[in-house]
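Hi there,

I know you've been waiting on this one. I reran it after we fixed the sequence typo, so this is the corrected version. Both the input and the resulting structure follow.
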Amino acid sequence: MTSSANETLADTEAWRAVLDRDRAFDGRFVTGVHSTGIYCRPSCAARHPRRENVRFYASAAEAEAAGLRPCKRCRPGDIARDEAAVAQALALLREEGEGVVTLGQLAAETGYSPAHFQRVFKRAIGLSPAAYLRALKLERAGEALSEGASVTEAVYAAGYGAPSRFYAASEGRMGMAPSAWRNGGAGVTIRWAVVATSIGRMLVAATDKGVCRLSFDEGADDLARRFPRAELREGGADFSDLLAQVVAAVEQPGDSRAIPLDVQGTAFQEAVWRELQRIPPGETRSYAQIAAAVGKPGAVRAAGSANGANNVAVLIPCHRVVRSDGTLGGYAYGLDIKRELLRREGRE
């Protein structure tokens, strides 16, 4: 990283993060202010330095090797300690489970106060310890179901004390019933239509809870392969209003978060998808920025995989993710469609 006139894109992104005081970038780099001789977290609340006085360093150790000392306000040297504490907490949560490890115990194990540890954990992971544990248990239940376990077996294998607790935890998140999740949509009715749009033929499919598939150049056969045991019904009056909303969102891309979705993935995938929905129309993010935003700055490749696992194009706007060098990168439905969606949003 350098502050020369020929800035790299990484320097530009780092300076933007500093100006935004973006906590998602804490731990990815530190800001060295050579006019004062200190280095800070990107999110430091102190007054912004002049750009020409700033150098970016990959770690606190590199900044200190350059003769800088840590800021007393944002304490950037604590980042390594925070990361170790979060890693320790994650190991305990994965090993023990709900009702065994409390927030107070996690804080005691890591040497933090409960309130401070809650903030550290949520900043790193994007979820509170309790919410992370709930997501982890749902993920384990899903894995057990996909491996052929019965719902009851999956419930207990994931650590739920009773099926009722599993259903309460999964309500509003997974959409389809757990058995349908495992059995290719068994017991679920999916309405669908293939419509002509200005950027190509588009498949739209929805359960009674929301859109479960939006893709281009696919048809009923493709949908049947994804949900081989669902009842597929073409069109229908109760589907037409939703279909019209989806078509409008594609023809005039914008903020489509009001359109209900019925999607599911791992806790990490769903965190990535939520972050994609937060990207304003007309803006893009890199895979590295998405990974940092969900609290996993080292998981750039995994963020790309989660982006590719999105089943609902446009509504979860994976087309707004580009490579760090600014090039478009890949897109499941071809770069022409990606480029056109970005053009309509004012990006290109």
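Quick highlight: Residues 177 and 188 are 8 Å apart (CA to CA).

Best,
R. S.
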